[in-house]
Amino acid sequence: MNKKLTYETVYDQIKQNIAGGVWKQGEKLPPLEQLSAELGVGISSVREAVRILGKQKILRIEQGRGTYVQDDLSDKPGHRLDFLERATMLQLTEARLIVEPELAALAAEKATEAEAQAIVDAAEAMKRKMEKKQDFLKEDMLFHELIAKASHNEVMYHMLDRIGDLLVDSRRKSMKWEGMDAKASSYHYLIAQAIAQRNPTQARALMKCHLEDMLVEFRKGEDRI
């Protein structure tokens, strides 16, 4: 159950290379095909790892030019990742429980028709992948990002963006818990429907229940992660 997915191994290796100075800030990474050959993995795994690192602002992906190191991950005072290294998944979930139910409620009130439909589409894509027992981290991350954007609150959106590293790690780990993938998929679908139906009270309550479920699991013991 705790075996790493291939792209997770690639993700960790790239971060290690950056932190160890193999690739320095501003430096261009080798092409995806070369990384795939060097690491002995499929190019799709490399592409997914790079995509996530780009989302976390560790890499900068420039269409037609290549992928560059944006953050050298150095351990200097005031560095944006310092507190992330000290934080725990339990602390993260407690913080999300404060913020994300309100984001869901705001999205139900403020989302455009296109934004609401995109949230529904992400939840349905996650559900399909879950039923096929496929990895749905990409859809999971997108779902929460779309809700944050649809809240039309720039402050709270950037608060979540700042803790992107922990959000990815939290979801990678919680998805491996028995039964959690089905529960998360069901919650996401119901939350999406509440947003599409413009029901902020229901959207808030469902997101709160979803995160409270996760909080219970983390409180059972962080030894699982």
Automatic annotation (TrEMBL):
InterPro entries listed in its UniProt record: GntR_C, TF_FadR/GntR_C, Tscrpt_reg_HTH_GntR, WH-like_DNA-bd_sf, WH_DNA-bd_sf
Matching CDD domains: WHTH_GntR
Keyword field contains Ribonucleoprotein: no
Boundaries of every HTH gntR-type domain copy: 4-72
Keyword annotations: Coiled coil, DNA-binding, Transcription, Transcription regulation
Top-level division of the source organism's lineage: Bacteria
SMART domains recorded: FCD (SM00895), HTH_GNTR (SM00345)
Short name of one Pfam family: FCD
Coiled-coil residues: 113-140
Stated name of the protein: HTH-type transcriptional regulator LutR
Organism expressing this protein natively: Paenibacillus konkukensis
